[in-house]
Amino acid sequence: MVYLVLLVVIISYFYNQGRKGQIEYGSFTLKPTFGTSKVKEYLEKYFTFYQSLPPKSKKIFEKRVAYFISCKEFVPRKMSEVSWEMKALISASAIQLTFGFPRVHLSYFQYILVYPEQFFNSANQQFHKGEVNPQAKTIVLGWKHFVEGYLSKDGRNLGLHEMAHALRLENRVMNREYNFLDEDVLLSWELQATQAMKELANGTEDFFRDYGATDREEFFAVAVENFFERPVEFSEKHPKLYSTLSNLLRQDPKLLIGKP
Ligand SMILES: [Zn+2]
Questions:
Q1: Are residues 204 and 118 in the same domain?
Q2: Same-domain status, 46 and 94
């Protein structure tokens, strides 16, 4: 009997030791991951979305970025290595977009290819600043253009644009992250987006850049860029569209303006 009690005490001691440092995020527990402190350094220095979060959310953000890095293979192209700074900030753009979904880390996409700047795509014989290649399970980014996206709040952000493409694809892939976007809200988004794209194409809408009229995927990506970069202007110009996107992504960047 004494041995049994001792055994229970020992097991519960190690169980509690193991739980230390974990973060409760709703019903989801995120284990501490190697690299969280390195990630924090770059987020504090450069990432305004992270800087405007309350302390508890910051902790979650750091852990999710570190977790995202641990799940992906970062592949340098035309350069010697993908630095920790690059890994941290690229992953932060994915976590910014998915911050309303604790369990979503774009798991279908295994590889992140990083070029110093734009790169040549032999398939369509054009230079690209970024792209998502679902066949290769890859997100590709030109670092120079990724950084430019975060330097100004002009409604253009390469990182968020490409992550937005990846998000829509991830939602359709039959894996553990399948179908995380609310179907009714998504349907409502598609209807409103179709209308906005028509207006964009005939020149009666001028908030979004023309590229958004290309197709539904591009409109979503362009809308996401504006959602995070110009939330106040977006919500004033298109209140219904903004609130639908806010419901779809389960977050509202407008509330973070002026913080901390
Ligand atoms: Zn695009």
A1: no
A2: yes
pLDDT (tens digit, 9 = 90+) per residue, 82-98? Answer: 999 999 999 999 999 99
Q: What amino acid occupies position 5?
A: V
Look-up: residue for tokens 């598609």? 190
Amino acid identity, position 134: P
- Same domain for 208 and 172, yes or no, is no
Distance 18 CA to ligand 1 centre (A): 42
Query: Tens digits of per-residue pLDDT, 177-207?
Result: 999 999 999 999 999 999 999 999 999 999 9
CA 220 – ligand 1 centroid, Å? 9
Ligand 1 centroid, distance to 1 Cα (angstroms): 66
Q: Say how many Å lie between the CA of residue 91 and the centre of ligand 1.
A: 18
Q: How far is the CA of 162 from the centre of ligand 1 (A)?
A: 6
Residue 66 in domain: yes
Question: Backbone phi, then psi, for 71, in 5-degree steps?
Answer: -90, -15
Q: Tell how far the Cα of 41 is from the centroid of ligand 1, in angstroms.
A: 30
For residues 43 and 117, membership in a common domain is answered with yes
Classify residue 11: in a domain, yes or no. Answer: no
Give residue 211 CA to ligand 1 midpoint distance, Å.
Answer: 9
Please, what's the b/e burial string for 148-157 (b: 16 or more CB within 10 A of its CB; e: otherwise)? bbbeeeebbb
Structural domains counted in the chain: 2
Q: Can you give the pTM of this predicted structure?
A: 0.88
Q: Do 36 and 66 contact (CB within 8 A), yes or no?
A: yes
Give a yes or no: residue 22 inside a domain.
no
How many angstroms does the Cα of residue 123 sit away from the middle of ligand 1?
16
- What tokens appear for 110 in the block? 């295994």
Range of the domain at 128: 33-180
